[in-house]
Write the C-alpha cells for this entry.
Amino acid sequence: MSIPIEKINDLLKKLPDEDKKEVLNYTEFLIEKRKRAFKEFLENVPEEDEELSPEEIEALREAEEDVKAGRVKTLEEVKRELGL
C-alpha cells in the first residue's frame, strides 16, 4: 500500500512538536526493526548446494543491467498490468 508523502506531511503539520518527536522515534524504531528482520532472514537462508548454470549466471547479469538502466517496474505497475 502506497501512501502519498503529501498526506503524511499534512498530518505531521497538524501535530504538536512533542508528538512529532514520538512519530520520529517510532519511525526510526520501525526502520531498525525491518533491518534486524532482514538481517535475521539473510543469516538463516540455507546455503545453495549447487552451482549456478551458465544460463542462470547470464540471466542474473541481464537483470543487473536492467536495474542499472532503469528498466524496472514497481509491484503496483505489474499488478495494474496483470489486472490485479
User: Anything to note?
Assistant: Residues 5-82 form one domain.
